[in-house]
Write a structure and sequence with these properties.
With 332 residues, the chain is an alpha/beta fold. The protein contains eleven helices and twelve strands. A six-stranded parallel sheet has the order 2-1-3-4-5-11, covered by helices on one side. α1 packs across α2. The radius of gyration is 23 Å and the shape is elongated.
Amino acid sequence: MRARPGRVTIYDVAARAGVSISTVSLAVSAPHRVRPETRERIVEAATALGYRMTAGRRVGAARIAVAAPFTSYPSYLRRLSGMLRRARDAAVDIIPYDLDSAAAADEPLLDVLPTRTDVAGLVVMGVPLGGAARRASRAARIPVVYVDVVPARADVGGPVVLVDDLDGGSQIGRHLAGLGHRRVLFVHEPQRSPAYVSAGMLRIRGIEQHVAVTGIAVSSPEAIDERVFRAAAEAGATAIAANHDQFAAAILAGQRGRPEREHLAVVGYDDGEVAAALDLTTVRQPFEESGRAALELVLGLVSGAATSHETVALAPTLIPRGSTRPKVSGAF
Protein backbone atom coordinates (compact mmCIF):
# COMPACT_ATOMS: atom_id res chain seq x y z
CA MET A 1 0.00 0.00 0.00
CA ARG A 2 1.51 3.33 -1.06
CA ALA A 3 0.91 6.88 0.10
CA ARG A 4 -1.22 9.18 -1.99
CA PRO A 5 0.78 12.02 -3.62
CA GLY A 6 1.25 14.93 -1.21
CA ARG A 7 0.25 12.97 1.86
CA VAL A 8 2.82 11.64 4.33
CA THR A 9 1.89 8.32 5.91
CA ILE A 10 3.29 5.90 8.44
CA TYR A 11 4.76 3.96 5.50
CA ASP A 12 6.87 6.97 4.50
CA VAL A 13 8.13 7.38 8.07
CA ALA A 14 9.00 3.68 8.29
CA ALA A 15 10.87 3.79 4.99
CA ARG A 16 12.89 6.88 5.91
CA ALA A 17 13.74 5.49 9.38
CA GLY A 18 14.61 2.07 7.97
CA VAL A 19 12.14 0.20 10.19
CA SER A 20 8.85 -1.62 9.79
CA ILE A 21 5.50 0.14 10.09
CA SER A 22 4.79 -1.97 13.18
CA THR A 23 7.91 -0.50 14.83
CA VAL A 24 6.72 3.02 14.06
CA SER A 25 3.32 2.17 15.51
CA LEU A 26 4.95 0.68 18.62
CA ALA A 27 7.12 3.78 19.08
CA VAL A 28 3.91 5.82 19.19
CA SER A 29 1.81 3.57 21.43
CA ALA A 30 4.43 1.89 23.67
CA PRO A 31 7.76 3.75 23.37
CA HIS A 32 9.35 1.81 26.25
CA ARG A 33 9.31 -1.28 24.00
CA VAL A 34 11.47 0.36 21.33
CA ARG A 35 15.23 0.86 21.62
CA PRO A 36 16.27 4.52 22.25
CA GLU A 37 18.31 4.82 19.04
CA THR A 38 15.38 3.46 17.02
CA ARG A 39 12.93 5.87 18.71
CA GLU A 40 15.18 8.81 17.90
CA ARG A 41 15.47 7.73 14.27
CA ILE A 42 11.68 7.47 13.98
CA VAL A 43 11.16 10.90 15.57
CA GLU A 44 13.74 12.46 13.24
CA ALA A 45 12.11 10.83 10.21
CA ALA A 46 8.61 11.91 11.22
CA THR A 47 9.78 15.47 11.93
CA ALA A 48 11.66 15.75 8.64
CA LEU A 49 8.62 14.51 6.67
CA GLY A 50 6.11 16.60 8.62
CA TYR A 51 4.17 13.51 9.63
CA ARG A 52 1.31 14.12 12.05
CA MET A 53 -1.06 11.64 13.70
CA THR A 54 -4.62 12.99 13.51
CA ALA A 55 -6.93 10.05 14.21
CA GLY A 56 -9.37 10.80 17.01
CA ARG A 57 -8.15 14.35 17.46
CA ARG A 58 -10.61 17.16 18.21
CA VAL A 59 -10.59 19.76 15.46
CA GLY A 60 -8.47 22.71 16.52
CA ALA A 61 -7.38 21.08 19.78
CA ALA A 62 -3.78 21.17 20.97
CA ARG A 63 -2.56 17.80 22.22
CA ILE A 64 -0.45 17.90 25.37
CA ALA A 65 1.30 14.74 26.60
CA VAL A 66 1.67 14.40 30.38
CA ALA A 67 4.20 11.87 31.67
CA ALA A 68 4.40 11.06 35.41
CA PRO A 69 4.56 8.14 37.88
CA PHE A 70 0.77 8.20 38.23
CA THR A 71 0.35 4.66 39.58
CA SER A 72 3.26 5.04 42.04
CA TYR A 73 2.07 8.29 43.62
CA PRO A 74 -1.61 9.31 43.67
CA SER A 75 -0.51 12.93 44.18
CA TYR A 76 0.30 13.14 40.46
CA LEU A 77 -3.30 12.27 39.66
CA ARG A 78 -4.31 15.35 41.64
CA ARG A 79 -1.92 17.44 39.56
CA LEU A 80 -3.44 15.90 36.44
CA SER A 81 -6.92 16.81 37.66
CA GLY A 82 -5.82 20.44 37.84
CA MET A 83 -4.76 20.24 34.21
CA LEU A 84 -8.02 18.61 33.18
CA ARG A 85 -10.08 21.34 34.84
CA ARG A 86 -8.04 24.00 33.05
CA ALA A 87 -8.35 22.08 29.76
CA ARG A 88 -12.15 22.38 29.93
CA ASP A 89 -11.78 26.08 29.15
CA ALA A 90 -9.44 25.59 26.20
CA ALA A 91 -9.16 23.47 23.08
CA VAL A 92 -6.72 21.02 24.70
CA ASP A 93 -6.52 17.23 24.65
CA ILE A 94 -4.52 15.71 27.54
CA ILE A 95 -2.69 12.43 26.83
CA PRO A 96 -1.33 10.78 30.03
CA TYR A 97 1.66 8.40 30.13
CA ASP A 98 2.50 6.41 33.26
CA LEU A 99 6.19 6.29 34.28
CA ASP A 100 8.20 4.33 36.81
CA SER A 101 9.08 6.14 40.02
CA ALA A 102 12.46 7.90 39.92
CA ALA A 103 13.18 6.64 43.44
CA ALA A 104 13.05 3.03 42.23
CA ALA A 105 15.48 3.52 39.35
CA ASP A 106 19.26 3.07 39.30
CA GLU A 107 19.40 5.88 36.74
CA PRO A 108 16.45 8.17 37.52
CA LEU A 109 16.27 9.69 34.05
CA LEU A 110 13.41 9.55 31.60
CA ASP A 111 14.90 8.40 28.31
CA VAL A 112 11.61 7.01 26.98
CA LEU A 113 9.54 9.89 25.65
CA PRO A 114 6.15 9.66 23.97
CA THR A 115 7.34 9.82 20.37
CA ARG A 116 4.02 10.52 18.69
CA THR A 117 4.52 13.63 16.64
CA ASP A 118 1.01 15.01 16.93
CA VAL A 119 1.61 16.37 20.45
CA ALA A 120 2.13 20.11 20.67
CA GLY A 121 3.86 20.00 24.06
CA LEU A 122 4.98 17.73 26.88
CA VAL A 123 4.67 18.01 30.68
CA VAL A 124 7.04 15.75 32.65
CA MET A 125 6.33 15.32 36.35
CA GLY A 126 8.54 13.77 39.02
CA VAL A 127 11.23 12.29 36.74
CA PRO A 128 14.18 14.19 35.18
CA LEU A 129 14.82 13.92 31.45
CA GLY A 130 17.91 12.09 30.25
CA GLY A 131 20.05 13.10 27.29
CA ALA A 132 18.28 10.87 24.78
CA ALA A 133 14.89 12.23 25.80
CA ARG A 134 16.10 15.84 25.55
CA ARG A 135 17.49 15.17 22.08
CA ALA A 136 14.24 13.48 21.04
CA SER A 137 12.15 16.43 22.24
CA ARG A 138 14.40 18.88 20.38
CA ALA A 139 14.29 16.76 17.22
CA ALA A 140 10.51 16.72 17.37
CA ARG A 141 10.44 20.42 18.31
CA ILE A 142 8.26 19.65 21.31
CA PRO A 143 8.37 22.20 24.16
CA VAL A 144 8.79 20.59 27.59
CA VAL A 145 7.60 21.79 31.01
CA TYR A 146 8.80 20.12 34.21
CA VAL A 147 6.81 19.67 37.43
CA ASP A 148 8.26 18.52 40.75
CA VAL A 149 11.74 18.13 39.23
CA VAL A 150 14.66 20.06 40.71
CA PRO A 151 16.89 20.86 37.72
CA ALA A 152 20.33 19.27 37.99
CA ARG A 153 21.56 21.64 35.27
CA ALA A 154 20.66 25.13 34.17
CA ASP A 155 19.94 23.96 30.61
CA VAL A 156 17.16 21.47 31.40
CA GLY A 157 15.35 22.92 28.42
CA GLY A 158 12.03 24.12 29.75
CA PRO A 159 10.09 25.92 32.47
CA VAL A 160 9.75 24.31 35.90
CA VAL A 161 6.84 24.25 38.36
CA LEU A 162 8.03 23.51 41.89
CA VAL A 163 6.45 23.30 45.32
CA ASP A 164 8.98 24.51 47.91
CA ASP A 165 9.74 21.23 49.70
CA LEU A 166 12.60 22.78 51.66
CA ASP A 167 10.12 25.23 53.16
CA GLY A 168 7.59 22.42 53.72
CA GLY A 169 10.17 20.51 55.73
CA SER A 170 11.10 23.65 57.62
CA GLN A 171 7.46 24.17 58.58
CA ILE A 172 7.34 20.62 59.98
CA GLY A 173 10.55 21.14 61.94
CA ARG A 174 9.40 24.49 63.30
CA HIS A 175 6.03 23.05 64.33
CA LEU A 176 7.57 20.07 66.13
CA ALA A 177 10.26 22.17 67.81
CA GLY A 178 7.57 24.52 69.06
CA LEU A 179 5.84 21.55 70.68
CA GLY A 180 9.02 20.51 72.48
CA HIS A 181 10.29 17.80 70.14
CA ARG A 182 14.04 17.67 69.59
CA ARG A 183 14.55 14.40 67.68
CA VAL A 184 12.52 13.26 64.68
CA LEU A 185 12.50 10.07 62.59
CA PHE A 186 11.88 10.75 58.88
CA VAL A 187 10.26 7.84 56.99
CA HIS A 188 10.75 7.84 53.22
CA GLU A 189 11.00 5.62 50.16
CA PRO A 190 14.36 4.05 49.26
CA GLN A 191 16.22 6.21 46.76
CA ARG A 192 18.43 3.97 44.65
CA SER A 193 20.34 6.74 42.89
CA PRO A 194 22.03 9.82 44.40
CA ALA A 195 22.08 11.45 40.95
CA TYR A 196 19.13 13.74 41.59
CA VAL A 197 17.65 15.87 44.36
CA SER A 198 14.40 14.29 45.53
CA ALA A 199 11.56 16.01 47.36
CA GLY A 200 12.30 13.88 50.43
CA MET A 201 15.92 15.08 50.54
CA LEU A 202 14.72 18.69 50.54
CA ARG A 203 12.15 17.99 53.25
CA ILE A 204 14.78 16.41 55.49
CA ARG A 205 17.00 19.47 55.03
CA GLY A 206 14.13 21.72 56.02
CA ILE A 207 13.30 19.71 59.15
CA GLU A 208 16.98 19.68 60.14
CA GLN A 209 16.92 23.46 60.38
CA HIS A 210 14.97 23.06 63.62
CA VAL A 211 15.43 19.55 65.06
CA ALA A 212 17.75 16.55 64.76
CA VAL A 213 16.62 14.08 62.08
CA THR A 214 17.26 10.36 61.57
CA GLY A 215 16.04 8.82 58.31
CA ILE A 216 14.73 5.34 57.58
CA ALA A 217 13.80 3.99 54.15
CA VAL A 218 10.61 1.93 53.80
CA SER A 219 9.47 0.35 50.53
CA SER A 220 5.71 0.84 50.94
CA PRO A 221 3.02 1.68 53.53
CA GLU A 222 2.51 -2.07 53.99
CA ALA A 223 6.15 -2.31 55.10
CA ILE A 224 5.62 -0.02 58.09
CA ASP A 225 6.35 -2.43 60.94
CA GLU A 226 8.22 -2.91 64.19
CA ARG A 227 11.44 -1.82 62.50
CA VAL A 228 10.17 1.75 62.13
CA PHE A 229 9.16 2.10 65.76
CA ARG A 230 12.40 0.44 66.89
CA ALA A 231 14.35 2.98 64.81
CA ALA A 232 12.43 5.80 66.49
CA ALA A 233 13.28 4.38 69.93
CA GLU A 234 16.96 3.93 69.04
CA ALA A 235 17.17 7.52 67.77
CA GLY A 236 15.43 8.86 70.87
CA ALA A 237 12.78 10.37 68.59
CA THR A 238 9.53 11.70 69.99
CA ALA A 239 8.00 12.39 66.56
CA ILE A 240 7.83 10.66 63.18
CA ALA A 241 7.59 12.68 59.97
CA ALA A 242 6.51 10.77 56.87
CA ASN A 243 7.40 11.63 53.29
CA HIS A 244 3.73 11.29 52.35
CA ASP A 245 0.37 10.71 54.01
CA GLN A 246 0.15 7.00 53.10
CA PHE A 247 3.20 6.31 55.25
CA ALA A 248 1.80 8.49 58.04
CA ALA A 249 -1.53 6.63 57.94
CA ALA A 250 0.30 3.29 58.28
CA ILE A 251 2.29 4.67 61.23
CA LEU A 252 -0.91 5.77 62.97
CA ALA A 253 -2.34 2.29 62.40
CA GLY A 254 0.82 0.78 63.93
CA GLN A 255 0.35 2.92 67.06
CA ARG A 256 -3.21 1.77 67.64
CA GLY A 257 -3.51 -0.38 70.73
CA ARG A 258 0.17 0.05 71.59
CA PRO A 259 0.44 2.43 74.58
CA GLU A 260 4.24 2.51 74.37
CA ARG A 261 3.94 4.16 70.95
CA GLU A 262 1.10 6.56 71.58
CA HIS A 263 3.37 9.37 72.76
CA LEU A 264 4.89 9.63 69.26
CA ALA A 265 3.70 12.64 67.29
CA VAL A 266 3.07 11.88 63.60
CA VAL A 267 3.26 14.29 60.65
CA GLY A 268 2.44 13.50 57.03
CA TYR A 269 2.93 15.31 53.75
CA ASP A 270 0.48 16.15 50.92
CA ASP A 271 -2.94 16.52 52.65
CA GLY A 272 -6.15 15.08 51.34
CA GLU A 273 -9.29 13.27 52.42
CA VAL A 274 -7.36 10.53 54.25
CA ALA A 275 -5.36 13.07 56.26
CA ALA A 276 -8.48 14.94 57.29
CA ALA A 277 -10.29 11.73 58.27
CA LEU A 278 -7.35 10.57 60.41
CA ASP A 279 -6.91 13.97 62.07
CA LEU A 280 -3.37 13.92 60.70
CA THR A 281 -1.06 16.91 60.93
CA THR A 282 0.37 17.29 57.44
CA VAL A 283 1.72 19.69 54.85
CA ARG A 284 -0.73 20.66 52.15
CA GLN A 285 0.69 20.82 48.65
CA PRO A 286 -1.11 22.88 45.97
CA PHE A 287 -1.32 19.90 43.61
CA GLU A 288 -4.18 21.12 41.43
CA GLU A 289 -2.63 24.57 41.19
CA SER A 290 0.71 23.11 40.09
CA GLY A 291 -1.06 21.15 37.35
CA ARG A 292 -2.89 24.24 36.12
CA ALA A 293 0.35 26.25 36.17
CA ALA A 294 2.17 23.57 34.16
CA LEU A 295 -0.54 23.47 31.51
CA GLU A 296 -0.54 27.26 31.27
CA LEU A 297 3.23 27.24 30.79
CA VAL A 298 3.27 24.56 28.10
CA LEU A 299 0.42 26.26 26.22
CA GLY A 300 2.36 29.51 26.48
CA LEU A 301 5.39 27.81 24.94
CA VAL A 302 3.28 26.36 22.16
CA SER A 303 1.85 29.80 21.37
CA GLY A 304 5.17 31.60 21.87
CA ALA A 305 3.91 33.65 24.82
CA ALA A 306 6.05 31.96 27.54
CA THR A 307 9.79 32.07 28.10
CA SER A 308 11.80 28.87 27.83
CA HIS A 309 13.30 28.93 31.36
CA GLU A 310 10.53 30.32 33.51
CA THR A 311 10.18 28.93 37.05
CA VAL A 312 6.90 28.92 38.99
CA ALA A 313 7.42 28.43 42.74
CA LEU A 314 4.39 27.47 44.86
CA ALA A 315 4.21 27.45 48.64
CA PRO A 316 3.12 24.48 50.82
CA THR A 317 1.14 25.01 54.02
CA LEU A 318 1.36 23.12 57.32
CA ILE A 319 -2.08 21.93 58.51
CA PRO A 320 -1.89 21.17 62.26
CA ARG A 321 -4.27 18.50 63.54
CA GLY A 322 -4.57 16.06 66.41
CA SER A 323 -1.73 13.69 65.49
CA THR A 324 0.85 16.05 66.96
CA ARG A 325 0.85 16.44 70.72
CA PRO A 326 0.79 19.83 72.44
CA LYS A 327 3.89 19.05 74.55
CA VAL A 328 6.33 16.24 75.36
CA SER A 329 8.67 15.99 78.33
CA GLY A 330 11.35 13.86 76.68
CA ALA A 331 12.18 10.73 74.79
CA PHE A 332 11.29 7.12 75.62
